[in-house]
Write a structure and sequence with these properties.
- By secondary structure, the chain is of the alpha/beta class.
- 50% of the residues lie in helices and 9% in strands.
- The chain is built from 17 helices and seven strands.
- Strands 2-3-4-5-6 form a five-stranded mixed beta sheet. Strands 1-7 form a two-stranded antiparallel ribbon.
- It is globular and about 50 Å long.
- The N and C termini lie far apart (61 Å).
Length: 309
């Protein structure tokens, strides 16, 4: 029997009907993926059952896709050390960010078995002495936890609401498309989380250029799920008001309370973050074609810093 968390009836139904999970075959599928990892000379990866089953679920039990995603997961982490190396709760910027409550997961998903709703307030980049690169590093850290700790993300998917209200020129001038590209590539190519939608609210006119650049970074199937709403009523067509935080007139938890809970969870998970330093890739040992920054990120080198008048 595989050492994985039992699923709720709702999530098990989704795993079977949408992700091609066959419960009695799960141990065999995990063993096949682990066997492949152990035969890759360039790859040092986690091989515990829960980690591997979440990649299988995120790839709808395509073994070849799961192999590719795990390889991308560790290749990108090794290529971009400023985002992933020593990325633990010992980083003082992480405490600043989590305590601000600017990036939380709301307690109720969108419907039974539905996607987890993430809620972000980007004015934090104005309010705190952090950069976009710092914020991306934080998101990368909590994504590590999400992959292994919460089945709802992997099976039900993830939807994010981004409030950019009162984001000023200071934050705009910090816009860093290279870091955004690196993080988005990691999330799409390397993480077993199904992105169900991105919804931007309260966008100032002067910020639309940066927002559209971010949107265009994503592949076509994600662009189709990326919405910039002119008003809250447009958002409610996708996310009913009751699913928003209390501070936004909803019934889905308080941002302040969630920030405190989130900090406790991340601190408790810190040993896992520290263990990440043991894993990665050695490109010199890769069999076949080598991977470099250009082949992985494509447009990364073509971005130039934007200036806002």
């Amino acid at each position: 029997m595989a050492a994985i968390r039992p699923l709720s009836a709702e999530l098990q139904k989704i795993a079977i009907e949408q992700l091609n999970e066959v419960p009695e075959r799960v141990p065999q599928d995990i063993a096949a993926l682990r066997d492949w990892i152990e035969k890759q000379p360039h790859l040092r990866a986690r091989t515990d059952d829960q980690f591997l089953v979440n990649f299988l679920r995120g790839c709808k039990y395509s073994l070849e896709k799961a192999k590719s995603k795990i390889d991308h997961f560790y290749t990108i982490r090794t290529m971009v050390p400023h985002m992933f190396a020593n990325n633990t709760m010992a980083d003082p910027n992480h405490l600043l960010i989590v305590r601000s409550g600017c990036y939380v997961a709301l307690p109720k998903p969108l419907g039974v078995g539905g996607p987890v709703i993430g809620f972000s307030r980007y004015k934090i980049i104005d309010d705190l002495p952090i950069t976009v690169k710092d914020f991306c590093r934080y998101v990368a850290m909590i994504t590590d936890k999400t992959i292994v700790a919460t089945d709802q993300y992997v099976i039900g998917g993830y939807m994010e609401i981004l409030d950019v209200n009162k984001v000023g020129l200071s934050a705009m001038s910090k816009f860093d498309p290279v870091s955004v590209k690196q993080l988005s590539t990691y999330c799409i190519k390397g993480c077993p989380i199904r992105i169900k939608g991105v919804h931007v609210i309260n966008a100032p006119k002067e910020g639309l250029t940066a927002i559209n650049i971010v949107r265009n970074i994503f592949p076509a199937h994600i662009k189709d799920r990326f919405f910039i709403h002119r008003n809250m009523e447009e958002l409610y067509k996708y996310v009913p008001k009751e699913y928003l935080p209390i501070e936004y007139g909803g019934q889905n938890g308080s941002l302040a309370d969630m920030a405190k809970q989130h900090e406790k969870e991340l601190v408790a998970f810190n040993s896992y973050f520290e263990e990440n330093e043991k894993y990665g890739i050695d490109e010199n040992l890769r069999q076949g074609q080598k991977v470099d920054m250009s082949s992985m990120f494509g447009l990364e080198g073509s971005f130039r810093k934007l200036e806002f008048d």
